[in-house]
Amino acid sequence: MNQFVAILITVFFLGLIIYFTVTHKLKDRYAFLWLVTAAAGVLAAACIPLLNRFALWIGIAYMPTFVFLVTIIFILALLVRQTISLSKQADKIKTLTQEFAVMEKRLLELVRKTEGREPL
Would the pTM of this model clear 0.70, i.e. be above it? Predict the structure, then answer.
């Protein structure tokens, strides 16, 4: 029964990811990562007895501890990836702001030069 509930929840999550991808609420850049994550969740839910054996094999007596460990590592990796992406975006915004300021200055100089001339 627990395995059925786990499969049901992970299939629902997979359906949400597919829905968000189809409606373009989730960009393609991130959709693949979340689709793989949801599929891995469905697979893990379907293979709970194998996860129990694997956890025991690596020395973890309580399988949910193993699942939480893997989940925490995944979340940390995702946070690092998002932080890197955010840093790149901040650099791009800074560069665009600087370029805009230079273009605005040039435009003002051009307007001042043309104000002194008579129209053609």
Answer: no
> CB neighbours (10 Å) of residue 108?
10
Query: What H or E segment, with its residue span, contains residue 42?
Result: helix 28-46
Amino acid (one-letter) located at 4: F
Per domain, the residue ranges of the chain are: 1-46, 62-120
CA distance 13 to 34: 10
Tokens of 63: 């399988």
Distance CA 38, CA 46 (A): 12
DSSP 92: H
Q: In Å, what is the CA distance from 47 to each residue of 3, 33, 34, 44? A: 8, 21, 20, 5
pLDDT tens sequence across 56-111: 999 989 888 888 999 899 999 989 988 998 999 999 999 999 999 999 999 999 99
Whose CA is closest to 78, among 89, 90, 86, 66? 86
